[in-house]
Amino acid sequence: MSHYKPQFAICRLAERCRAGVRRCLGAEANCRKTTLAPKRIRTQRRSGLPHRTGAALVELAFAGPILFMFILACFEFGRLTMIRHTADNAAYEAARYAMVPGATSAEAVDKATQLLATVGARKVEVDVNPKVLAPETKTITVTVRVPIAGNSWVAPKYFSSYAIEATSHLATERYNPD
Predict the structure, then answer these.
(1) By Cβ atoms counted within 10 A, which residue in 4, 6, 109, 161 is the most buried?
(2) Which strands, in side-by-side order, build the sheet including 163-171?
(3) What one-character DSSP code corresponds to residue 71?
């Protein structure tokens, strides 16, 4: 068991510091003088490891295109999902707009086209069935078709014949007194 007590070590260190300060303030000859110029810090090179100049650049050359492809795919799928969701919503809203008495199929087409224009969808095809909405009409079906070819950056090269299609089928609110 050791008789070492940390308090005594701290006190001895403080005494030595006080003595050194007295010597320097008294301008003794053995006082260490400090210089104002900073000392140059030298880094030590680890021995045994090769010097790797340009390794990060080579790794970026391999990983960069793959990373860029994944980022582009995220944007592409995000945009197509946004167009798909808007097409679903446009078909439903157009059918709701056409189901009330006095509405026409042209108004439903305009409503769907207007909603799809908010996301920048191009070459949109809207079909309302039946074409003429009479008081005897029981149901209305609105189909919205947005081709991928005009609304995507990369997908048209591989999926040019595909389209996003949404259909909404609603009962009408026509009044028939018979």
Answers:
(1) 109
(2) 125-129, 139-147, 163-171
(3) H
